[in-house]
Automatic annotation (TrEMBL):
Pfam families, sorted: LAGLIDADG_2
InterPro entries: Chloro/Mito_RNA_Process (IPR052500), Homing_endonucl (IPR027434), LAGLIDADG_dom (IPR004860)
UniProt name for this protein: Homing endonuclease LAGLIDADG domain-containing protein
Molecular function per GO: endonuclease activity
GO biological process, one term: mRNA cis splicing, via spliceosome
Residue ranges of domain Homing endonuclease LAGLIDADG in the record: 36-198
Amino acid sequence: MMVIPREVKNRSKVNSWSKSVRKLQNSLILDSIQKQVLVGTLLGDACLAPNVYGKNFRLELSQSAKQKAYLDWKAKIFHNWCLSQPHFNKKTKSWRIKTLSHPELTTYHSIFYRDGKKVIPKSINQIFCSTLGLAVWFMDDGTKGPRYGYTLNSQNFSQTDNEILVKLLQSSFGIKQVSLHRDKKYQRIYIGGRSRLKFENLIRPHIIPTMLYKLHS
């Protein structure tokens, strides 16, 4: 991780840092692990935000203070894409980090966003089929559900998008007992107790220690 000072008063140093940043951006390519984590967290808490010029997008990650270890884990995975360490936002009382903006992230934005809102592409099964990505989605948005099942808090997606995700869990991961349960106004994905062990066996190898409390066993 190349740390850029917040204030660089000397103009020659500013130009030097700018060249270094551009050189770093040109060298960046998402590796396999980064792609899996990226897609998993886009299904969950993460967002892709435009840079100041609105040309390319960057990945923005945030977690509550008690989940800083989880943010640190993500920051380590994307370490070569970040110019600074996670910082604490006093207003939101959360830890945050963002990557450099980059054309490759802009491509993911075109896949996962429509009119500024996050959506599920119909081709999701082609880019989301790893147990690591599934575990990241669960660590972001998963909770223990009733009857020893699990809930994925997918209520920010439309019903159509949720139906795509249900089919994905069934076809790509072999999770048979999965359905949509209405929660007041919205629907969430529920993985039933009969598929609990199957689901746990898929994600457990990737769950970081501070997130094990989310599992039933």
